[in-house]
Each structure stands twice: as structure tokens, then as C-alpha cells.
Amino acid sequence: MPALSREAVSVDVGNRLRQLREGRKVSMRTLAQMSGLSANALSMIERGKTSPSVSTLYRLADALGVPVTDFFSPESSRKRVVFLKGEERPRLPFMRGLWEGLGGEQFTGRMMPFMLTLENGASSGPNNVVHTGHEFVYCLRGQLEYMVENQVYTLEAGDSLLFSAQLKHRWRNPGGLVTNALIVISDYAEGDQPLPLHMEKTEK
Are the C-beta atoms of residues 110 and 185 closer than 8 Å to each other? Predict the structure, then answer.
């Protein structure tokens, strides 16, 4: 068994996108039409010339009919017990932030924990998010503003928030510092994919 890297596993998004697209026999032009992105933008991503935002990644996953976690590894094997060392944690850089998986992409149950690192101004998009299940948020550093229905909650380090995810919600980093937050989405309906909804399709 090869030695584990001491760094989190960075995802080669361009290479995985090409594998997923070609594996489904989808041309770049067709994927561009299905995702609403330009063929030139897709080419830049596949060649590693640009990094897609999370909203773009979810648009591509939706167009290909795969969960976004398929970008992390060729096989999305599910387990009843997931033990994940810190250096094995998959991470996905996106514009103004970083998404880090905490095992939900391998778990058989309906629980999705993940870490977000957000630069100033990063947000879930201009539209409200609504999905099944429950959502737990724990702010580790900086500030994280959550709007649930018409109530605004400003979380600082050590603050937490728990709510029914069927309530309209959205989030953003309103401060001047980098924010780190732990988010756990649980008990969502089978077949539901709440994560894409948190990264609204803000790009044209």
C-alpha cells in the first residue's frame, strides 16, 4: 500500500470532468448546452487553465447526472463505517473558498458533513435554499451570516445554528476575515441532493 500523503487530497477537476464526460459519451458541445456554460469555458476547465466555482461544478454534475462527489474519486463506494484521516480528506478549491469533505461522500447513510473555508464576500448565492432534512452549522473562525426565513443570524467562532432545512435559508461571509465553518446536513430524503442548492447557479 502506498504511503499516504501528508496533505489533503486535491481534486484534479479538469481530468475528472473529462473522464466523467467521456465515460458517458457526452461531447463537449452537448455538455455546454446541457449545463448552460460555453464550450470554451469547459475546454479551459478540462485543460486545467481555470478553476471552476462550486456553482459551476454543481451545474456540470447536474448536467452529467452524477453527484458532485463523483469529482472526488472514480469510484463512489459507500460504506457503513467511514474513518477518514485528516490528510485523506478530499478538498475542492473554488472561487473565494474551499470545500472539504468529511466522509459523507463515502457514507451509506443520509448525512453530509463538510468544512467550508470562505473568503470575504463568499456566499451561497442570491437565492434562498430549501431542501429536506436538518442543517447544523458551527462557526470555527471569522463570521458567518445565515438568513433563515426572515431572521438573520450572525455566527462567530464558537457559535452554532440548527434548523429545519425546509425553511428558506442562505449564507455568506460578511466580515473582512476568512471564515471556517463546519456544516452537517442530515436526514434528507433519499435521492435528494441538498449540497448543490447551497451553491446557487449564479454564473451565466
Answer: no
Q: For the chain, where are the E strands, in sequence order? A: 9-10, 90-94, 97-101, 111-118, 134-141, 143-148, 151-156, 160-164, 169-172, 179-186
Q: Which fold has domain 10-71?
A: 434 Repressor (Amino-terminal Domain) (1.10.260)
**DSSP label of 5:** P
Helix, strand, coil % (nearest 5) of the chain?
25, 30, 45
What tens digit of pLDDT does each residue of 63-85 get? 888 766 677 655 557 789 999 89
User: 86-197: what fold?
Assistant: Jelly Rolls (2.60.120)
Whether this prediction's pTM lies above 0.85 is answered by: no
